[in-house]
Amino acid sequence: MARATGWSRARVAARLEELLHQRALRLAVDLAYAPFGFHATACLWLTVVPGRLKATGDALSSHPETTFAAAVTGSASLPVTVTCRSMDDLYAYVTGNVGSLPAVTQVDVVPVLHRLKQAGTRVHHGRLATG
User: Fold this and answer.
1) pLDDT in tens, the chain (131 residues)
2) DSSP state, 100?
3) What's the domain count of the chain?
4) If DSSP codes are grouped into helix, strand and coil, which group holds residue 5?
5) 3-state DSSP call for residue 11?
6) What pTM did the predictor assign?
7) Starting from the edge strand earliest in sequence, which strands make up the sheet with 121-124, in order?
8) Contact 46/97 with Cβ under 8 angstroms?
9) Are residue 58 and residue 4 in the same domain, yes or no?
10) CB 84: neighbour CB atoms within 10 A?
11) Strand locations in 12-94, DSSP E?
């Protein structure tokens, strides 16, 4: 950025820090999970007692395994995407962490067998593709 703007690195760093502090700028990072040892991703479609939807979503969004959570309409009102190290870890997460939430009445687990794109980046052979 310093090269592109003609500013010094120190000036760019200070400006970025200021923009982040003012919440005028947000950084988003896209990761290829497999190289970090995470090989089991699944979409969970949760049926949740309506009065406990927010609390359940808040609880799930605080778990490190959760990469996405949203409240939506329909019978499966809480779609959640989780990423675990292995299928055994995914099983333990669903049966333990998700299964222990009192307002969850049903879970449909849809494993991701092959990822083509995530967030804004295409994935090729388990790595983020350029271009």
Assistant:
1) 999 999 999 999 999 999 999 999 988 887 888 889 999 999 999 999 999 999 999 999 999 999 999 999 999 999 999 999 999 999 999 999 999 999 999 999 999 998 888 777 888 888 888 76
2) T
3) 2
4) helix
5) helix
6) 0.76
7) 117-118, 121-124, 127-128
8) no
9) no
10) 20
11) 40-48, 66-69, 78-84
- Contact of 2 with 12, CB cutoff 8 Å: yes
SS3 61: helix
Q: What is the CATH number of the domain that holds 110?
A: 3.30.70.920
Which structure tokens are listed for 78?
């809480």
Q: Which residue has the tokens 């760019």?
A: 12
Kindly state the DSSP code that residue 34 receives in the 8-state scheme.
G
92 and 76 housed in the same domain: yes
CA separation for the pair 8, 47 (Å, rounded): 53
Helix (H, G, I), strand (E, B) or coil at 81: strand
CA distance 101 to 104: 6
